[in-house]
Design a protein that fits this description.
Ferritin; mainly alpha
Length: about 70
């Protein structure tokens, strides 16, 4: 994430840039969580990883929808 790009922005411009940066951020978290599911052994970590994948997948879908709507 590039927080410096967000600093000068407000309103719709901020919202669009926030979403633009959050999608790859969430995709990275999902990749890490999927790795934890495939390679990890701790059931608490695996449970957390499943929650991350489920939640962030839904959030990515929502953010992509907003990107299309806010053009």
């Amino acid at each position: 994430m590039d927080l410096a790009k967000l600093d000068p922005l407000k309103a719709n411009a901020f919202d669009r840039e926030f979403i633009r940066q959050m999608i790859p951020h969430h995709e990275g978290a999902m990749a890490m969580a999927k790795d934890a599911l495939a390679k990890g052994s701790n059931e608490e970590i695996k449970s957390l990883a499943r929650q991350i994948v489920e939640a962030q997948e839904a959030e990515i879908t929502q953010m992509k929808k907003w990107q299309e709507e806010w053009k």
